[in-house]
Each structure stands twice: as structure tokens, then as C-alpha cells.
Amino acid sequence: MPVAKIYGLPLSTCAQRVMMALHEHNVPFEFVPVSFAEIKESAHLARQPFGQMPVFEDVDGFQVYESRAIIHYIDAKYKGQGNDLVPADIKQAALVEQWLSVEYSNFNPATTAIVTETVFKPHLFKIEGDMANAEAQAAKLAKILDVYEQHLSKNEYLANNQFSLADLAHLPYGQHLARGQFGHLITSRPHVNAWWNRITSRPTWQKVLSHQ
Fold first, then answer.
1. Which one, of 55, 79, 57, 76, lies nearest residue 67 by Cα?
2. Which of 36, 50, 104, 120 is most buried as measured by Cβ atoms within 10 A of its Cβ?
3. What's the pTM value of the predicted model, to 2 decimals?
């Protein structure tokens, strides 16, 4: 019986977004390993012309890339199976999209920069990180998370008081931030910290981590 496929690596932060959505919807899948070297080769470029990962292939052969596009597709395709991550109500759905945009435009750039300098460069690429850049990005992220703290003081989740794609999207890079030297940006804000503990304790996220 055909199963969905993820072309990429389980350690890829963007692949983890996709895995989380699949686990939330109880969709079986398998990995087709593609290394960092192979993403620039013709076979993978035919699937993803920008030479990035992951690519998602559904059971019918349909392929889509870009992790945020993939998780939207999974939630729409498998709606009613497992946990729906975007409400049917148009106003509630708009709030999910609002916070997804906040994640993409505000949280993600600063967090990615911090994680790149403090985790990926020294541990993955074996080069020295730029700590001045990490500190500058941490200052930006602190102001962003102050807004989260205020919002989460009145809400358990980012949108509609229920777990959604908006929360899910924060997990892959947020995990590296939380357990690194800038983890205090989360733990020092009680409502952000409570939200973070809430979403990382989901069994589906624990399944994602088991793939590492």
C-alpha cells in the first residue's frame, strides 16, 4: 500500500514541521533520505528546483515543497482525520494565518539567526559562530517575545485557544533556542514558557523527536 513520503532528513527543521502535521493527522509516512550534498543534484532539483528540503509526496504521487505550504496541504487534505489544525470558521482561520505570518516575519528570522550562530555553525558546520550577531538578534527576539507574553497571558495557544498550525510552526527552531544559551528568552517569560511546555509536551512532537 502506498504511503506518503518526505524527501529530506529527519533532523531538518523544516522536515520536522511536516512530520508534526502528519503525526497530528495520523498519516503514515516514510523518509526518502536526501543528504545536504544530494539536494543540489539533478534528481532532487527535479523535485525542488531551489535545492532545498523537504519535498512532500502524497500517496497519489502529488508533490509539493516549502514546509509551510506542505503543512497547509496536509491539514486540508486530511481534515477530519486526527487533529484539524486550521478551523473551518473563516475568522478563526484568519487568526491562525495571522500568527503564522507573525512566526514567519518576526519569530523565525531572529530565532533562525540565533540558532545558526550558536548551534548550526559550531556543531554542524564546525565553524565559529558570530556571537555579536546572535546577541543582536536576541535583543530583537526579546521584544518580539514580550508581545507573545502579553498575548499568551490571556490565551493558552496563539489562535482561538486551541493548538493550530500557528503553534506548530514555532517548534523546530524553537526547540534549539529553548535548550541553548538563549533559552532564557523563553523561560524568563512565564506565559511564553507555559505555552512552550504545553506544545512541546504533545505526544505528536515527541514522535517527531523520536525520528532524530
1. 55
2. 120
3. 0.95
- The three three-digit cell numbers of residue 43, written as one number: 534528481
All domains in the chain, ordered by first residue? 4-85 (3.40.30.10), 90-205 (1.20.1050.10)
Report residue 211 CA to chain centroid gap: 15
pLDDT tens over the chain, length 212 residues:
789 999 999 999 999 999 999 999 999 999 999 998 999 999 999 999 999 999 999 999 999 999 999 999 999 999 999 999 999 999 999 999 999 999 999 999 999 999 999 999 998 889 999 999 999 999 999 999 999 999 999 999 999 999 999 999 999 999 999 999 999 999 999 999 999 999 999 999 999 999 87
